[in-house]
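Need a sequence for this fold. Nothing fancy.
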């Protein structure tokens, strides 16, 4: 139902929803606010009848089409009418109204329950795969429609890989645990990361880096605002890290991904808080702030929370004590 909610959210009452007969029953669950005309017959014939595939059509969202769909439509409308409107559509996928914010409240409550629960299960002898499986299971039994992405669970030196894939590796006493997980709830996605230490012999480097992450988050929160440059935020975070060094290098050298990204009806939505994108934050955007520092053969630390950009303020949506 992701795409159904995604496009109804954008078009609201001005849409005709096209779905085949497999979704007839599911469509009954669409919230009243999104009720619209629904057609469940032969979609291609209907689109042709209504003129949706006529030459007057203005554009398509390329990143929502596969190659076969693209070629099918091109055969009808001609290559000159295959205009890409992805850049116009994508910003709309991260502008949230009261209904989607209610969904986020419920979704992040699930995320909180799951993360706080699995932390208790992170004891010596458990494997990364076992914790990843537990996350998926708990999301489902707590009301989510599944994972927003395969959970990242990394122990010890494996946590130095930002997108580590869980393995059979078991947790040992006095090791770092990094967990990055999110769920799907009524079409919206969550994305939260926590890093913690199991044991009482915490390395000095771990404590130092964790405090740097907390400093970055606190200072970024102070400048996070409607109209702020996404590129500027990323560079601002790196400037804070640059004050500290490790083995002759400033800490920003160990920050190997962007500061964050939008979250909405896509997991990674516009805008990206990156040196590669100079966009502006808008009222209604939800974004992650996720600084991370990674030290090969040692460990990595990432802390990720979600924030709502409001007209005159910023609201932290995550309240997860792990």
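Here you go.
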């Amino acid at each position: 139902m992701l795409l159904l909610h995604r496009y109804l959210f954008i078009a609201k009452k001005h849409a005709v929803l096209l779905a085949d007969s497999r979704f007839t029953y599911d469509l009954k669950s669409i919230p009243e606010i999104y009720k619209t005309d629904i057609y469940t017959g032969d979609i291609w014939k209907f689109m042709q009848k209504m003129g949706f595939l006529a030459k007057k059509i203005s554009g398509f969202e390329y990143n929502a089409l596969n190659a076969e769909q693209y070629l099918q439509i091109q055969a009808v409308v001609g290559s000159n009418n295959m205009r890409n409107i992805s850049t116009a559509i994508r910003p709309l996928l991260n502008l949230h109204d009261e209904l989607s914010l209610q969904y986020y409240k419920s979704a992040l409550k699930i995320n909180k329950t799951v993360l706080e629960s699995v932390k208790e299960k992170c004891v010596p002898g458990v494997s990364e795969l076992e914790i990843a499986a537990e996350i998926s299971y708990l999301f489902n039994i707590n009301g989510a429609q599944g994972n927003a992405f395969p959970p990242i669970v990394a122990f010890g030196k494996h946590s130095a890989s930002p997108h580590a894939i869980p393995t059979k590796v078991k947790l040992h006493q006095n090791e770092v645990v990094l967990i990055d997980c999110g769920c799907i709830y009524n079409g919206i996605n969550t994305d939260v990361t926590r890093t913690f230490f199991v044991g009482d012999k915490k390395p000095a480097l771990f404590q130092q880096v964790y405090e740097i992450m907390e400093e970055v988050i606190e200072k970024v929160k102070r400048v996070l605002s409607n109209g702020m440059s996404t590129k500027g935020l990323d560079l601002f975070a790196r400037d804070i890290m640059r004050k500290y060094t490790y083995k002759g290098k400033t800490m920003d050298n160990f920050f190997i991904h962007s500061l964050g990204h939008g979250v909405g009806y896509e997991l990674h939505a516009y805008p990206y808080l990156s040196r590669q994108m100079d966009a502006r934050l808008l009222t209604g955007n939800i974004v992650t702030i996720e600084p991370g520092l990674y030290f090969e053969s040692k460990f990595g630390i990432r802390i990720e929370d979600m924030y709502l950009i409001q007209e005159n303020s910023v609201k932290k949506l995550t309240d997860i004590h792990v």
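For context: Confidence is low (pLDDT under 50) at residues 1-14.
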